[in-house]
Amino acid sequence: MAISGEDFDVIVVGAGIMGSSTAYQVAKRGHKTLLLEQFDFLHHRGSSHGESRTIRATYPEDYYYPMVMESYKLWAEAESEIGYKVLFKARHLDLGSSDDKCLRNVIETCHKHSVPHAVLDHQQVAEKFAGSFDIPENCVGVFTEYGGVIKPTKAVSMFQTLAFQKGAVLRDCMEVKDIRKDGVRGGIWVHTSNGEKFWGKKCVVTVGAWTRKIVKKVNGLELPIQPVETTVCYWRIKEGHEAKYAIGGDFPTFAFYGDPYIYGTPSLEFPGLIKVAVHGGYPCDQDKRPWGPGMALGSLKQWVEKSLAGLVDSGAPVATQLCMYSMTPDEDFLIDFLGGEFGKDVVVGGGFSGHGFKMGPVVGRILADLVLCGEAKGVELQHFRILRFEENPKGNVKNLEA
Ligand SMILES: Cc1cc2nc3c(=O)[nH]c(=O)nc-3n(C[C@H](O)[C@H](O)[C@H](O)COP(=O)(O)OP(=O)(O)OC[C@H]3O[C@@H](n4cnc5c(N)ncnc54)[C@H](O)[C@@H]3O)c2cc1C
To answer: Which residues form a coiled coil (predicted)?
Structure first.
């Protein structure tokens, strides 16, 4: 156990997927690492808990494609190191109106990166998936081999275990209340609310929905990262068809580019139930969560009733779960040095905007590169800069209320 006052090479604050994979990456390279978490490890009050997250290679923004492909590789490496699986492969289907801008960009990304894909009309979609999807005539599907489902809590636990095995020190129930520069010796002091303090040469801040709060406290910068409470919905598969929609079969992970954006995964976590949910939610205070009553589900219900009529029992979801997103105005990540008096000694990874989990391993690699080497190769970091918020504070804020 770390003792107050002990020195480290790198202190990572926040033990969700991003902090845990960063701690693993840093410790693996032989650096003395401390991972601090404000709540119990594997708690359910942030963004990285639960039973399933989609991984897909198709993105409207082409700079995410290389990151996802690197992540697939790093997920597999970590799985083989720990000896169990956290990622379950599936194929992926993007749906939407043929003139939808995002879907057209998805197709362009596939062309640009030579991703094998098939563009299917509404009839071909119905045929390929044995009538599971019933989409309007003006809609198309973009089908690729690169989908999958990750088990989030198990994955976070995997990276924490691997970090520990590489020598990292892990402490939970340690809320970081301040990060200060050591003006005499150099490096960083990390103070916790229970009165402990740790010195590190460098620090990585991966605090999810708490990013705005901690950054404001540490250097006064007001980041437009908005916590949002979202509701995950599970629907009962029609009796007798459960096996057809289970992971490992032909049924893909999918996304519908529309208003709202809807996504789904094959059945995995709860036998007989399938996850179909809306990418969106209600702005909230991360420290005073409403914990429901949840989002208005009218448009999701309508979509499920119309488009998945052959798959699920109509009506309402049979189970729901709550979780938090941390949204940036443009829905791109924040991965950058904190700057100011901290220069390159403090790196921030946040604002993962409801689509970061799949990239946990690559984000950990990038944050470790930044904090240890001052640069990260193989990624277009200009999209994730902290200064973009000052240049364009509102960005293209999307309506998150589903
Ligand atoms: C319902 C839902 C569905 C999603 N689906 C997908 C998906 O299909 N595919 C995908 O790629 N992504 C998905 N995401 C997004 C993904 O889960 C998140 O982007 C990712 O989990 C963010 O991880 P994080 O480590 O940044 O944040 P978190 O998991 O919230 O971790 C931050 C940690 O920092 C801790 N912390 C905060 N403040 C302090 C402090 N002062 N001191 C110490 N510790 C602190 C917190 O307690 C927390 O544990 C989904 C998210 C949700 C909620």
So the answer is: none
Question: Does 401 fall in a domain?
Answer: no
Q: What is the mean pLDDT of residues 24-43?
A: 98
Cis peptide before 224 (omega within 30 of 0): no
């990239």: which residue's tokens? Answer: 359
Q: Could you tell me the two tokens for 188?
A: 């960083």
Does the residue 375 lie in any domain?
Answer: yes
**244 domain residue, yes or no:** yes
pLDDT in tens, 93-116: 999 999 999 999 999 999 999 999
Q: Where is the domain boundary, 309, 327, 345?
A: 327
Structural domain total, the chain: 2
The answer on pLDDT for 400 being more than 70 is no
Assess whether pLDDT exceeds 90 at residue 301. Answer: yes
Give the Å distance between the CA of 239 and the centre of ligand 1. 34
Are 233 and 295 in a shared domain? yes
Q: Assign 3 a pLDDT band (cuts: 50, 70, 90).
A: low
Asked whether 364 and 156 are in contact (CB, 8 A), the reply is no
Q: What mean pLDDT is predicted for residues 287-303?
A: 88
Same-domain check for residues 244 and 367:
no
Whether residue 399 is contained in a domain is answered as no
Average pLDDT (320-328) is 96
Predicted confidence at residue 390, as pLDDT, reads 85
SS (H, E, C) 156-210: HHHHHHHHHHCCCEEECCCCEEEEEECCCCCCEEEEECCCCEEEEEEEEECCHHH
pLDDT-derived band at 401, boundaries 50, 70, 90: very low
Please tell me if the CB atom of residue 229 comes closer than 6 angstroms to any atom of ligand 1: no
Supply the range of the domain harboring residue 122.
Answer: 89-148+226-327
Q: Where are the alpha helices (DSSP H) in 64-187?
A: 64-82, 101-112, 122-128, 152-165
Residue 225 Cα to ligand 1 midpoint, Å, equals 13
* Same domain, residue pair 312 and 242: yes
The helix (H) or strand (E) run that includes residue 347 is strand 346-350
Same domain, 182 and 304: no
Cβ of 36 closer than 6 Å to ligand 1, yes or no, is: yes
Residue 351 near ligand 1, beta carbon < 6 Å: no
